[in-house]
Amino acid sequence: MDDPVVSRYARLRDEALTSTTGTGGIGGTWSSLTAVFAHRQLLGLLVRRDIKARYKDSVLGLLWTLINPIIQLVIYYLVMGKILGAAHGIDDFAIYVFAGLTIYGLFSETLGGTTASIVANAGLVKKVYVPREVFPIAATGSALFTFGVQVLVLFVACFVLATPPLTPNLLYVFPSTAIVVVYALALGLLFSALNVYLRDIQYLTQILLMLSLWASPIVYGWPMVATVIKDQGLPSWLLDVYTSNPLTLAVLGFHQAFWMSGTAQDFPADLLPRMGIALLIGLVLVWICQRAFSRLQGNFAQEL
Predict the structure, then answer these.
(1) From CA 138, how far away is CA 44, in angstroms rounded?
(2) 282 to each of 239, 273, 279, 288, how far by Cα in Å?
(3) Contact of 271 with 253, CB cutoff 8 Å
(4) Which member of 72, 74, 139, 216 has the greatest number of CB atoms within 10 A?
């Protein structure tokens, strides 16, 4: 009778080796996507774990995802809009700011979560093999859950504080969200891999997010930027560069969707075509960053 241990080692010896980094090009990306889909149950578990862990041991639990945006909205309405007089020149300032911060919050939470995702799951990475892309994607799913609650609060606030956003412009929510998810996931894939080898990346990400907040028309209007560029005699193409920033496009899209006090002068005339071009470029960027991620993932376990 054959020794089961010897038999098992014989099967392992004859088993073909499979590279964890996959093949290059489109084929490698498709292989990675197939592997992630095959582990979709694990992906769902990781998303639920991240959501539950955020409010672990709290009495109200997931209700905090609803309470936090409501309190933020009240602060914007009372402090910034009324007491500090920041609403001067921008009608329904609370809705304007909250709409911009809602879509920015998705970018911030997604990029921050994906960047730290591999290091945060070091235990799993070192013990078992799963497609490493699962961890950044799970962080993105967790951020989308929080974002969904904030959008609901924003939608209801429009009925309470301003004009209900019941126009076709509400559809701008979808391209705006897609742009943010695509770019945040692309950068998150790259940064999460680099963060394994150089932990300073997660701190540089915070600086990038801070700069992104003020480089987008969230607490000021897009026409203000156009006016400054014109008054200072700066080249007109600077406005095109500023407007083509994916986060700027996403913020403007959310303003189109929820800020009913805006006029045609508050937005670029070609906003939707710009968003379409940005989305296509973002998809290419996701592919490039995924290939870089695939190249770097081979030594994750050793580095961690």
Answers:
(1) 7
(2) 20, 14, 5, 10
(3) yes
(4) 139
Indicate the average pLDDT of the chain.
Answer: 83
For residue range 93-138, what is the model confidence (pLDDT) as tens digits?
Answer: 888 888 999 999 999 999 999 999 888 888 888 877 788 889 999 9
- The Cα–Cα gap between 67 and 132 comes to 33
Alpha carbon 87 to its chain centroid, in Å, reads 28
Contact 172, 257 (CB under 8 A): yes
Contact 171, 258 (CB under 8 A): no
> Angle at CA 125, nearest 5°, toward 123 and 129?
130
Q: Are 136 and 121 spatial neighbours (Cβ–Cβ below 8 Å)?
A: no
The number of beta carbons lying within 10 Å of the beta carbon of residue 74 is: 12
Where helices occur in the chain by DSSP H, the ranges are 4-14, 25-38, 40-54, 64-75, 93-120, 122-127, 134-161, 173-197, 201-214, 222-231, 237-244, 246-258, 271-296, 300-303
CA distance 82 to 78: 5
Length of the chain, please? 304
pLDDT digits (tens, 9 = 90+) for 9-44: 666 566 555 555 555 556 567 777 788 778 788 888
Q: Pseudo-torsion of CA 217, 142, 77, 223, nearest 10°?
A: 10
Residue type, 126: K
| pTM: predicted TM-score of the whole model, two decimal places | 0.86
- The Cα 49–Cα 175 span in angstroms is 28
Three-class SS state of 232: coil
pLDDT of residue 179: 97
Distance CA 103, CA 218 (A): 10
